[in-house]
Amino acid sequence: MFDLTISLDVTGRRCVVVGGGPEADARVEALLHAGAEVVVITPTPSPAIEAAAADGRVSLERRGWRGGDLAGAFVAYNTREDDTPVAQIWAESREQHVLLSTLDDKPRCDFATPAIVRRGDLAVTIATAGRAPALAKRLRQHLEAELGEEYATLVDVLDEARAQVLPREVPFAEWAAKWSQALADLDGLARLVADGHVEEARDKVVAAVGKGGR
To answer: CA 208 → CA 102, 157, 179, distances in Å?
Structure first.
């Protein structure tokens, strides 16, 4: 059972995706967004993977998996969309100390990839310990509809507000309570940002927290 959710820094690290269909597309997109060095191994790449290879964003091996393909990798995915030797890939991941996720095969998974809603630097992850991926996907779609692009700007607004009220001059518990109060009307702040009143949203937060939290 997966009982701990963590974020891995894959920036500049070799990450291997074995497979070339829709499941591979989703994992390649996520890895590229995270700045990984992506290698895709499949004899039947999807149009999206073909395009990513054509513009140099991924390294594409147009063949089936073979021993040694995980050498030097940090993480790997086996999407099982090709006729891949599941047990052999798992065994090699153990030998090479590579974190592996095998689609629909929990015993051969080191991690489960959560569904993610991204709005700029805001990332909301939804995980079901690998037990109900369809539910995670549905909840992601729901949140994508609820969280507009203004939330990306709201992150910047709150970062600016935080810079204005630092350094903290009160106990942390009081500081946290001030911030909770400042964000009590989160929908209202988001509407201000969506309507272009960015400075007003920032000033409301600053006023609610106060310099140093006082």
So the answer is: 48, 14, 8
pLDDT (mean) for 139-146: 93
Q: What's the token pair of residue 119?
A: 């709005």
Question: CATH assignment of 114-147?
Answer: 3.30.160.110
Q: Would you list the domain boundaries of the chain?
A: 14-113, 114-147, 150-213
Q: What is the dihedral of CA 36, 40, 45, 51, to 10 degrees?
A: 40
Mean pLDDT across the stretch 29-36?
93
Region 144-151: what's the mean pLDDT? 94
Q: What is the pLDDT of residue 3?
A: 60
- Please check whether residue 38 is in contact with residue 98, taking contact to mean a CB–CB distance below 8 angstroms: no
pLDDT confidence band for 173 (50 / 70 / 90): very high
Residues in CB range of 156: below 8 A, 6 or more apart: 120
- Please tell me the CATH code under which domain 14-113 is placed: 3.40.50.720
Residue 131 to residue 111: CA distance in whole angstroms: 12
As given in the structure block, the two tokens for residue 89 are 């890939």
